TrEMBL record:
The keyword Ribosomal protein does not apply. It comes from Bacteroides caecimuris. One of its GO terms (biological process) is phosphate ion transmembrane transport. The lineage of its organism: Bacteria, Pseudomonadati, Bacteroidota, Bacteroidia, Bacteroidales. Residues 29-316 form the PBP domain. The complex is composed of two ATP-binding proteins (PstB), two transmembrane proteins (PstC and PstA) and a solute-binding protein (PstS). GO terms for cellular component: ATP-binding cassette (ABC) transporter complex. Keywords: Phosphate transport, Signal, Transport. This is Phosphate-binding protein. Residues 1-21 form the signal peptide. Part of the ABC transporter complex PstSACB involved in phosphate import.
């Protein structure tokens, strides 16, 4: 599908090693050019996976990191093959579109990254985080922060919260967590891709938020863990439902997904009641239409889209997750996703036989 996105794209392009008119590796169809847009949260993982997919399958993937909200809009407008989103669609959103399926691609963590001179260790509870972003805790040496960090000398400086300016699945995950741990947040702000934060500095995308934190003393913001790691920004230990102060890792993110997963894979794993779980963990999804014949797409393009998703669910792709600071999908999520992919059709006929 060679159509231009209506919004500016931060492109992650995986170019096929074969010419566009060449065959895919099994020779059953011509190589295709796929396009997607959406979440910046999984972009470091997608960069690697799309390049590997191009080498293995001969298909090129161009992905615009424009935020989950923008990706879903582009899918609704039928100008992409798939949308990337850290927030699963609500029942209301799904009712406003043709039927879609959600395919989880990996798991990751939203971290509280901060910029405080000389401080490399920080502990935060959910209620304290909520009060910081609600503007109720304004100073770093507030007594509640000091009580959580008795061995740290916190500065008598104003806190500068940093948040997303664009419609963001990362914002949804973060605020979904806050609604579970703070009645104040739930009643005053709620969860969503866009939230009216009362004070602080806004930035576009995970890269934008990480960049502002990196450059702004006494700031704190929520970003995907890989972005904090890449910019060498410290991030806090967050108290989980068991009272443990946990850093994100492949193991602590996986612990958050130890519960039941529904058949359509739409579920939240924030504030999981599991030992060792990092409390702001999430799945991230690719969303596609169940009926793939739309906007003059060819059957070969539909087949390539499913080949991409099958590759992402493969052990080869999932083994990459921990290398780029994400976590692999649990076996149940992969099993459910393969079952759901078998319901995808072209002109009403199942693509996967």
């Amino acid at each position: 599908m060679k159509k231009k996105f209506s919004s500016i794209m931060t492109l992650a392009v995986a170019l096929a090693l074969t010419a566009c008119g060449g065959n895919s590796n099994d020779g059953s169809r011509k190589a295709q050019e796929l396009s997607g847009a959406g979440a910046t949260f999984p972009l470091p993982f997608y960069n690697v996976v799309f390049e590997n997919f191009a080498q293995v399958n001969g298909d090129a993937v161009a992905y615009g990191g424009i935020g989950s909200g923008g990706g879903v809009r582009n899918l609704r407008d039928e100008i992409v093959d798939f949308a990337g989103s850290d927030a699963f669609l609500s029942d209301k959103e799904m009712a406003e579109m043709n039927p879609v399926i959600h395919v989880p691609t990996c798991m990751g963590a939203v971290v509280l990254a901060y910029n405080l001179d000389g401080i490399s260790e920080l502990k935060l509870s959910g209620e304290v985080i909520a009060d910081i972003f609600a503007g109720n805790i304004k100073m770093w040496n507030d007594e509640r922060l000091a009580a959580l960090n008795p061995d740290v000398t916190l500065p008598a400086e104003a806190i500068i919260p940093v948040f997303r300016s664009d419609g963001s699945g990362t914002t949804f995950v973060f605020t979904d967590y806050l609604t579970k741990v703070s009645p104040m947040w739930a009643s005053n702000f709620g969860a969503g891709k866009s939230v009216n934060f009362p004070s602080g500095q806004a930035a576009k995308g995970n890269p934008g938020v990480a960049g502002v934190i990196k450059q702004t003393k006494n700031s704190i913001g929520y970003v995907g863990s890989e972005y904090a790691f890449a910019q060498k920004i410290p991030y806090a230990r967050v108290q989980n439902q068991r009272g443990e102060y946990v850093l994100p890792s492949s193991a602590t993110i996986s612990a958050a997904a130890s519960g039941e997963i529904p058949a359509d894979t739409r579920c939240s794993i924030t504030n999981a009641d599991a030992a060792g779980a990092y409390p702001i963990s999430t799945f991230t999804w690719m969303i596609i239409y169940k009926e793939q014949n739309y906007s003059d797409r060819s059957k070969e393009q539909a087949m390539a889209t499913l080949d991409l998703l099958k590759y992402i669910l493969s052990d080869e792709a999932q083994n990459i997750t921990s290398e780029v600071h994400y976590a692999p999908l649990p076996a149940k999520a992969k099993e459910l996703s393969m079952t759901n992919l078998k319901t995808v059709t072209f002109d009403g006929v199942a693509i996967l036989q």
